[in-house]
Design brief:
Distance between the termini: 51 Å
Radius of gyration: 19 Å
Structural class: alpha/beta
Shape: globular
Number of strands: 10
Strand order of the largest sheet: 2-1-3-10-4
Helix content: 25-40%
């Protein structure tokens, strides 16, 4: 039994999320001299925005902003370019194929800093990274700490990503790791197994294909500090197109608010147009989970607005990853992000 749903080729996507090899072309950004973005015949600024995977509910706010005209009314002509297997957002930014891109988690901009690429996260629309751990139903499991001693099915990219945090926080060890091939069979065969997943994807797939409701632990609810659904912008582009960038961030925040709190049908229609393999039931359950778990509008977003980022969160992320040896302790982690283009800043 193989996983289906909104990530039919998940191994490719998650390998791109944290692998340093995916950033091989990112250093070319250092030579990027793009300045002002082009305008269309109506005088609107053209922006190409690359997402991190095929169109899905995790991109819903951006599609909502397009469908509602939130981008257009701010003088923007936005083209959403969906990702997929083999699509590398940092490479698209490096080549100038897109002006803006989506970062799946905090490792992406931090890796770019480590590579010396002048690009930053300028907004984060997921205050919680939707990364989860999945276990079989067991009343004894109340928190992630209760998973001690169990085998963990993890992809290679995850071992240098959220597994670093899990080991630091809970004392888990590498001898617990088993190879995860994005196939449900090993998980279903071992009732003690723990499998990685995404809040909006694998739990629903397990219910549909295996016939039971798994135990799901959202890492963010136990302190995992990574952001997700970030907007990445090359420094030169941000500098020379500050008004357009602020408009994009504000319109995207409006889109995410409406997609989560309002009627997402218009965005869903655009998502399914871009990705015909997507089904409405998958979109509906994903949107419901995003809303129920405060992924978009919880945490600091409830205080400071959608898309917000804080220096405290970025520092916490750097401290746990650098202490684990992922990044050198002298890395200038502050270069990974900026808040100056967020509403009310700058």
């Amino acid at each position: 039994m193989t996983l289906r749903g909104n990530r039919p080729s998940s191994p490719d996507r998650r390998a791109l999320i944290a692998g340093a090899g995916a950033l091989a072309a990112a250093s070319a950004l250092g030579a990027c001299t793009r300045s002002e973005a082009p305008v269309d015949e109506e005088g609107r600024v053209r922006l190409r925005f690359a997402t991190d995977w095929r169109a899905q509910a995790e991109h819903g706010g951006f599609y909502q902003a397009q469908a509602s005209g939130a981008y257009a009314k701010r003088g923007l002509n936005v083209q959403i370019i969906q990702g997929g297997p083999g699509v590398n957002v940092p490479q698209l930014l490096a080549s100038g194929a897109v002006e803006l891109g989506m970062g799946s988690n905090s490792f992406i901009p931090m890796n770019l800093v480590a590579e010396g690429a002048p690009v930053k996260a300028v907004a984060a629309y997921f205050q919680k990274d939707p990364q989860v751990l999945i276990a079989h139903p067991d009343p004894a499991l109340e928190s992630i700490a209760d998973l001690a001693g169990r085998p963990f099915l993890l992809a290679d990219a995850s071992i240098t990503a959220f597994w670093v945090w899990l080991k630091a926080k809970y004392g888990f060890t590498d001898d617990q790791v088993r190879k995860y091939t994005f196939n449900l069979a090993p998980f279903l065969a071992d009732e003690r197994a723990v499998q990685q997943g995404y809040l909006t994807s694998e739990p629903y797939t397990i219910v549909k294909e295996a016939g039971f409701t798994p135990k799901v632990f959202l890492l963010a609810d136990e302190g995992y500090p990574s952001y997700a659904a970030m907007v990445l912008a090359p420094n030169a582009f941000a500098r020379d197109n500050a008004v357009a960038l602020r408009s994009f961030i504000a319109a995207s925040a409006e889109g995410w608010r409406d997609y989560i709190q309002g009627d997402g049908k218009a965005a869903d229609a655009l998502i399914r147009k871009d990705n015909p393999e997507m089904t409405q039931d998958v979109l509906d359950q994903a949107r419901a989970r995003l809303k129920a778990n405060g992924i978009v509008d919880g945490g600091d977003a409830a205080l400071y607005g959608l898309g917000t980022m804080t220096i405290e969160r970025w520092q916490a992320f750097f401290e746990v990853t650098s202490q684990a040896g992922v990044y050198p302790p002298n890395l200038d982690w502050r270069q990974a992000f900026t808040t100056q283009y967020l509403p009310g800043r700058g």
